[in-house]
Amino acid sequence: MRPTASRLCAKLLINPIHFLSLGFGSGLFPRAPGTAGTVAAIPVYLLMAQLQLPVYLGLTFLMFGLGIYLCAETSRELGGSDHPAIVWDEIVGFCITMIAVPVKFEWVLAGFLLFRFFDILKPWPIRVLDRRIKGGLGIMLDDVLAGFFAALVLHFIVMPFMQGSL
Protein backbone atom coordinates (compact mmCIF):
# COMPACT_ATOMS: atom_id res chain seq x y z
CA MET A 1 0.00 0.00 0.00
CA ARG A 2 1.36 3.44 -0.94
CA PRO A 3 1.86 6.02 1.79
CA THR A 4 -0.73 8.78 1.99
CA ALA A 5 -0.01 12.32 0.83
CA SER A 6 -0.05 13.55 4.44
CA ARG A 7 2.63 11.02 5.39
CA LEU A 8 4.72 12.09 2.40
CA CYS A 9 4.15 15.74 3.27
CA ALA A 10 5.49 15.21 6.79
CA LYS A 11 8.65 13.58 5.41
CA LEU A 12 9.03 16.37 2.89
CA LEU A 13 8.94 19.02 5.58
CA ILE A 14 11.58 17.42 7.79
CA ASN A 15 14.05 15.81 5.39
CA PRO A 16 15.99 17.65 2.65
CA ILE A 17 16.63 14.37 0.81
CA HIS A 18 12.90 13.84 0.36
CA PHE A 19 12.31 17.53 -0.35
CA LEU A 20 14.60 17.24 -3.37
CA SER A 21 13.54 13.78 -4.54
CA LEU A 22 9.89 14.84 -4.34
CA GLY A 23 10.66 17.78 -6.64
CA PHE A 24 10.35 20.53 -4.01
CA GLY A 25 6.90 19.16 -3.21
CA SER A 26 5.62 18.98 -6.79
CA GLY A 27 5.57 15.18 -6.65
CA LEU A 28 2.88 15.38 -3.99
CA PHE A 29 0.27 16.55 -6.51
CA PRO A 30 -2.52 13.96 -6.35
CA ARG A 31 -2.86 13.67 -10.14
CA ALA A 32 -0.03 13.47 -12.68
CA PRO A 33 2.88 13.98 -10.26
CA GLY A 34 5.36 13.33 -13.10
CA THR A 35 3.88 16.20 -15.07
CA ALA A 36 3.95 18.38 -11.95
CA GLY A 37 7.60 17.44 -11.44
CA THR A 38 8.36 18.45 -15.01
CA VAL A 39 6.64 21.80 -14.43
CA ALA A 40 8.88 22.21 -11.36
CA ALA A 41 11.87 21.54 -13.63
CA ILE A 42 11.15 24.61 -15.76
CA PRO A 43 12.47 27.20 -13.26
CA VAL A 44 15.47 24.94 -12.59
CA TYR A 45 16.17 24.90 -16.32
CA LEU A 46 15.68 28.67 -16.63
CA LEU A 47 18.25 29.25 -13.89
CA MET A 48 20.69 26.77 -15.39
CA ALA A 49 20.24 28.07 -18.95
CA GLN A 50 22.18 31.19 -17.96
CA LEU A 51 25.28 29.04 -17.44
CA GLN A 52 27.90 28.27 -20.06
CA LEU A 53 27.27 24.93 -21.76
CA PRO A 54 30.12 23.00 -20.05
CA VAL A 55 28.89 24.18 -16.64
CA TYR A 56 25.28 23.29 -17.55
CA LEU A 57 26.38 19.80 -18.61
CA GLY A 58 28.50 19.32 -15.49
CA LEU A 59 25.70 20.46 -13.20
CA THR A 60 23.23 18.17 -14.98
CA PHE A 61 25.64 15.25 -14.55
CA LEU A 62 25.99 16.07 -10.84
CA MET A 63 22.19 16.25 -10.52
CA PHE A 64 22.00 12.79 -12.10
CA GLY A 65 24.54 11.34 -9.67
CA LEU A 66 22.87 13.02 -6.70
CA GLY A 67 19.51 11.79 -8.00
CA ILE A 68 20.59 8.15 -7.83
CA TYR A 69 21.19 8.63 -4.11
CA LEU A 70 18.14 10.83 -3.45
CA CYS A 71 15.72 8.56 -5.30
CA ALA A 72 17.16 5.41 -3.69
CA GLU A 73 16.78 6.88 -0.20
CA THR A 74 13.23 8.09 -0.74
CA SER A 75 12.28 4.87 -2.51
CA ARG A 76 13.64 2.82 0.38
CA GLU A 77 11.70 4.96 2.86
CA LEU A 78 8.49 4.53 0.82
CA GLY A 79 8.68 0.78 0.41
CA GLY A 80 11.36 0.21 -2.21
CA SER A 81 9.48 1.10 -5.37
CA ASP A 82 9.55 3.93 -7.88
CA HIS A 83 6.84 5.84 -6.02
CA PRO A 84 5.00 8.31 -8.30
CA ALA A 85 5.84 11.16 -5.92
CA ILE A 86 9.57 10.76 -6.64
CA VAL A 87 10.11 13.28 -9.44
CA TRP A 88 13.78 14.34 -9.18
CA ASP A 89 14.26 12.11 -12.24
CA GLU A 90 11.79 14.26 -14.18
CA ILE A 91 13.73 17.38 -13.24
CA VAL A 92 17.01 15.92 -14.47
CA GLY A 93 15.38 14.42 -17.58
CA PHE A 94 13.88 17.78 -18.53
CA CYS A 95 17.24 19.50 -18.03
CA ILE A 96 18.75 16.94 -20.42
CA THR A 97 15.98 17.63 -22.94
CA MET A 98 16.78 21.34 -22.83
CA ILE A 99 20.57 21.12 -23.37
CA ALA A 100 21.63 23.96 -25.72
CA VAL A 101 18.04 24.93 -26.53
CA PRO A 102 17.09 28.61 -26.90
CA VAL A 103 15.44 30.08 -23.82
CA LYS A 104 12.14 30.95 -25.44
CA PHE A 105 8.61 30.02 -24.45
CA GLU A 106 7.92 27.97 -27.57
CA TRP A 107 11.05 25.84 -27.08
CA VAL A 108 10.37 25.30 -23.39
CA LEU A 109 6.85 24.19 -24.29
CA ALA A 110 8.13 21.92 -27.07
CA GLY A 111 10.73 20.43 -24.71
CA PHE A 112 8.11 19.92 -22.01
CA LEU A 113 5.72 18.13 -24.38
CA LEU A 114 8.43 15.99 -25.96
CA PHE A 115 9.90 14.98 -22.62
CA ARG A 116 6.49 14.03 -21.21
CA PHE A 117 5.73 12.10 -24.42
CA PHE A 118 8.88 9.97 -24.17
CA ASP A 119 8.62 9.62 -20.39
CA ILE A 120 5.04 8.35 -20.57
CA LEU A 121 5.36 6.27 -23.76
CA LYS A 122 8.73 4.74 -22.77
CA PRO A 123 9.74 3.45 -26.22
CA TRP A 124 12.48 0.83 -26.57
CA PRO A 125 15.04 0.78 -24.93
CA ILE A 126 13.57 2.99 -22.19
CA ARG A 127 10.85 0.49 -21.26
CA VAL A 128 13.34 -2.40 -21.10
CA LEU A 129 15.66 -0.48 -18.76
CA ASP A 130 12.72 0.72 -16.67
CA ARG A 131 11.67 -2.89 -16.06
CA ARG A 132 15.13 -4.38 -15.51
CA ILE A 133 17.09 -1.81 -13.51
CA LYS A 134 15.81 -1.11 -10.03
CA GLY A 135 16.75 1.23 -7.20
CA GLY A 136 17.95 4.79 -7.55
CA LEU A 137 19.73 4.13 -10.84
CA GLY A 138 16.63 2.55 -12.35
CA ILE A 139 14.44 5.43 -11.19
CA MET A 140 16.81 7.94 -12.79
CA LEU A 141 17.80 6.08 -15.95
CA ASP A 142 14.45 5.86 -17.74
CA ASP A 143 13.91 9.62 -17.41
CA VAL A 144 17.47 10.39 -18.47
CA LEU A 145 16.92 8.34 -21.63
CA ALA A 146 13.54 9.99 -22.19
CA GLY A 147 15.39 13.31 -21.90
CA PHE A 148 17.96 12.22 -24.49
CA PHE A 149 15.26 11.04 -26.90
CA ALA A 150 13.35 14.30 -26.46
CA ALA A 151 16.57 16.31 -26.91
CA LEU A 152 17.33 14.55 -30.19
CA VAL A 153 13.87 15.31 -31.55
CA LEU A 154 13.97 18.87 -30.23
CA HIS A 155 17.35 19.54 -31.81
CA PHE A 156 16.09 18.37 -35.18
CA ILE A 157 13.41 21.07 -34.85
CA VAL A 158 15.63 23.74 -33.26
CA MET A 159 18.85 23.40 -35.25
CA PRO A 160 17.62 24.91 -38.54
CA PHE A 161 16.36 27.98 -36.65
CA MET A 162 19.59 28.32 -34.69
CA GLN A 163 21.73 28.09 -37.84
CA GLY A 164 19.53 30.61 -39.62
CA SER A 165 20.02 33.17 -36.84
CA LEU A 166 23.85 33.09 -36.91
From TrEMBL:
KW Transmembrane (keyword) present: yes
GO molecular function, one term: phosphatidylglycerophosphatase activity
UniProt entry keywords in alphabetical sequence: Hydrolase, Membrane, Transmembrane, Transmembrane helix
Enzyme class of the recorded protein, top EC level: hydrolase
UniProt domain YutG/PgpA: residue ranges: 20-157
EC numbers for this chain: 3.1.3.27
Residue spans crossing the bilayer: 12-33, 53-72, 144-162
Alphabetical list of InterPro entries matching this protein: PgpA, PgpA-like_sf, YutG/PgpA
One GO term (biological process): lipid metabolic process
Protein's UniProt name: Phosphatidylglycerophosphatase A
Lineage: unclassified sequences, metagenomes, ecological metagenomes
